[in-house]
């Protein structure tokens, strides 16, 4: 199976904006002790809990300081490498560098030296997002965005100093940098995040870069014979007049039938291509057919009509996910890499338990603040389901209108996570089933509105429709709970919603976990398995940093 770190976080520019409006969530979100203390300055610290109740135990975090976008994940000589946007000097956004960590299993990590620091005129204002590509001689190359002394963005190249070193601990910037600057007509502040390269049948490399051209979000396509001298293709790989600036574009093949991962340059029948881009503070993807001879990319639907946007992303890195095409061929499936299961310890399990309307059961015996839970529901008497009015088709709106405290017939039912004993705090991840003219629709929501009694933390409600037929299939949910992050996978990974939450009471041993049904119809938990999760091992062999001059 292929793997991708799929969370897009925030762009350099966006971040500045968000940081201003959202100091609280981001400090909670992203940082270690220092930032929390800063953010909590005017707040009460929760009594009798560890100093860092929101620090995660098995999700990737740097040892300290600010982190945002993931960059250039790759496997090299049997070692996984992961880079990320990092401020080595403080818990706030700034001094953007490429942090670097390695792993043998994608779960336990070793922090190695900073790979790229802003120390050249062409990147002095930051080494921003980019990618890695393994070249035909087996050597990896980094493409990254540098912001120069004028605040202009350009693309740069870097290589490992010693390719025999599997840790790739030292990276050297190309003397030819910057290798690409914004072409005429492209705003030099809207030209960033080069994707991983792929080879066409003509032996030439391609990559795309995120931009806005003629007021439309675009993935500008470049071609090169040597990965160093690049020529802009006459047309972009894709663009959409319904969107503005695209960031962090990614373009990769998936097999039509199966879960096998593919090399970025794979071609041939039985392959679809995924184009992912970030805009409007969300990640979106489309599926389409790509002809590598002509570089024509025909998408199955328009970006915004795509059933499948990733919404509700935030802060720290999610667990790396395997990605493949769904059986129906029109959606991606995302699932935490199986290596995560090595962290599972104490287990609870039961089957075929009735969950009456208006009832809940506590799932006890595991650590509710650090857990992995899989639950499946089966429903009967579906003809009793509420009718879905034809007008409301936006699942986000529907989840807000019918939040976790709004009783229906089939639903809300699901999990209450990071819940306080009195339920004053809880994050609800739940489903509702509706009847339509000729079928059924399953809605999945993550409701953070009661996740914390603290003011000023994110209390959004996110949602998506789950493409499954409740007459034939169980409705399943897997939720990864790690102190301040709740990652939920509905329908085996057809829908994924990630929430960052900052409870005041429901922390550590005061956190509880429940299965609940707040609809009027009874249903059955066909199976539930829950595990306490061990802490991932994270060590640092990073050398002392010299201050930036
Ligand atoms: C950037 O680094 C310098 C030290 O090299 C430090 O003085 C400054 O505060 C840092 N900026 C941020 C935003 O962390
Ligand atoms: C390159 O890395 C290899 C493997 O770690 C090491 O044996 C060798 O000494 C390194 N070469 C240099 C010049 O550092
Ligand atoms: C946007 O693009 C579509 C085709 O992709 C076209 O049909 C439509 O007219 C365009 N709309 C505007 C406002 O340009
Ligand atoms: C972008 O987000 C804004 C605010 O959240 C929303 O009003 C707008 O409809 C979104 N645009 C698109 C194209 O989705
Ligand atoms: C369940 O519904 C009742 C009545 O509408 C409401 O008071 C309660 O808060 C709901 N439970 C949850 C977990 O939202
Ligand atoms: C939840 O829905 C109910 C009923 O529509 C509404 O009164 C309440 O304000 C909603 N809560 C939130 C946080 O949106």
TrEMBL record:
Superkingdom as given in the UniProt entry: Eukaryota
The name this protein goes by in its record: Uncharacterized protein
GO BP, sorted A to Z: carbohydrate metabolic process
Pfam family, one: Glyco_hydro_32N
Record key words, sorted: Glycosidase, Hydrolase
Positions of the Glycosyl hydrolase family 32 N-terminal domain: 59-305
Coiled coil: none
GO function terms (MF aspect): hydrolase activity, hydrolyzing O-glycosyl compounds
Domain Glycosyl hydrolase family 32 C-terminal: 339-531
Protein family according to the UniProt entry: Belongs to the glycosyl hydrolase 32 family.
């Amino acid at each position: 199976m292929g793997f991708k770190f799929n969370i897009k976080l925030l762009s350099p520019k966006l971040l500045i904006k968000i940081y201003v409006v959202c100091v609280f969530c981001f400090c909670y979100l992203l940082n270690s002790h220092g930032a929390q203390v800063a953010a909590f300055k005017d707040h009460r610290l929760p009594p009798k809990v560890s100093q860092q109740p929101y620090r995660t135990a098995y999700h990737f975090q740097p040892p300290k300081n600010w982190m945002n976008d993931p960059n250039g994940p790759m496997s090299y000589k049997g070692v996984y490498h992961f880079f990320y946007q990092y401020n080595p000097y403080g818990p706030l956004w700034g001094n953007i560098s490429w942090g670097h960590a390695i792993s043998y299993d994608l779960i336990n990590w070793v922090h190695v030296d900073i790979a790229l620091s802003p120390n050249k005129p062409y990147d002095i204002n930051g080494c921003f997002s980019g990618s890695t590509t393994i070249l035909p001689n087996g050597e990896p190359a980094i493409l990254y965005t540098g912001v120069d002394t004028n605040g202009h963005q350009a693309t740069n190249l870097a290589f490992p100093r010693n390719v025999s070193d599997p840790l790739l601990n030292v990276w050297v910037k190309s003397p030819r940098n910057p290798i690409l600057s914004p072409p005429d007509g492209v705003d030099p502040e809207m030209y960033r995040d080069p994707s991983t390269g792929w080879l066409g049948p003509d032996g030439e490399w391609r990559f795309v870069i995120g931009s806005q051209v003629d007021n439309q979000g675009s993935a500008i396509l470049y071609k090169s014979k040597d990965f160093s001298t690049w020529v802009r293709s006459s047309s972009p790989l894709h663009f959409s007049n319904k969107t503005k600036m695209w960031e962090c574009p990614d373009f990769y093949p998936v097999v039509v039938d199966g879960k096998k991962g593919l090399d970025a340059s794979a071609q041939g029948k039985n392959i679809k291509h995924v184009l992912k881009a970030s805009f409007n503070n969300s990640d979106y993807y489309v599926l389409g057919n790509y002809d590598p001879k002509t570089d024509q990319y025909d998408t199955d639907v328009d970006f915004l009509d795509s059933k499948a946007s990733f919404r509700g992303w935030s802060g720290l890195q999610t667990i790396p996910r395997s990605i493949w095409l769904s059986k129906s061929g029109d959606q991606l499936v995302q699932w935490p890499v199986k290596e995560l299961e090595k962290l599972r310890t104490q287990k609870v399990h039961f089957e075929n338990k009735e969950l009456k309307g208006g009832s809940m059961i506590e799932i006890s015996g595991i650590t509710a603040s650090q857990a992995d839970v899989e639950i499946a529901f089966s429903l009967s008497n579906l003809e009793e389901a509420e009718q879905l009015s034809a007008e409301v088709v936006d699942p986000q709106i529907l989840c807000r209108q019918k939040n976790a405290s709004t009783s229906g017939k089939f639903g809300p039912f699901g999990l209450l996570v990071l819940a306080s004993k009195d339920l004053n705090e809880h994050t609800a991840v739940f489903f509702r089933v509706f009847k339509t003219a000729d079928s059924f629709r399953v809605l999945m929501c993550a409701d953070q509105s009661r996740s914390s009694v603290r003011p000023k933390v994110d209390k959004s409600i996110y949602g998506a429709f789950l493409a499954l037929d409740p007459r034939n299939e169980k409705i399943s949910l897997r939720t990864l709970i790690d102190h301040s992050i709740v990652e939920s996978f509905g329908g085996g990974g057809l829908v994924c919603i990630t929430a960052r939450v900052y409870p005041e009471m429901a922390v550590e041993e005061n956190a509880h976990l429940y299965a609940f049904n707040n609809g009027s119809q009874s249903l059955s938990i066909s199976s539930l398995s829950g595990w306490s999760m061990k802490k991932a091992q994270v060590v640092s062999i990073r050398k002392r940093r010299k201050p930036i001059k």
